[in-house]
Amino acid sequence: MKENIENQLLILNTIMYVNGVFNSEYHEDDSIYDIILNISQNSSDYPVSYSSDVLSPEQWEDVKNTVLDNPDIYDNLTIRSVETKYEARSVTITDDKNNMYVIYQGTGDGREWNDNGVGAHANVTVYSK
Asked: Which of 16, 18, 32, 127 is 20 to 30 A off residue 109, Cα-Cα?
């Protein structure tokens, strides 16, 4: 079970950098599944911010398909709040058991995405020093 939660958190961390996922057109109580489904149905473009530093189009397809192929997981992850301040963003999400997850997008560029991935498995990273 722990591995599944870590994978889910890495997916959530990744989609923080996808244009349109956590912006003002989506509101509290939307599920991650519904947002990714909406983006995939309404855009044929490659929607990833900082694309050269974050994900290739093929990797975006893998992330998108992981979410869409697992509605039992991602339809139960619901946005509770989105806060943006000084170009940083935090998103609070709950699951169907009321577990709370907070994910962050820093103020830097997409290189921080790699550092966030390392941070899922380490206490100190290059950017957090």
From this structure: 32
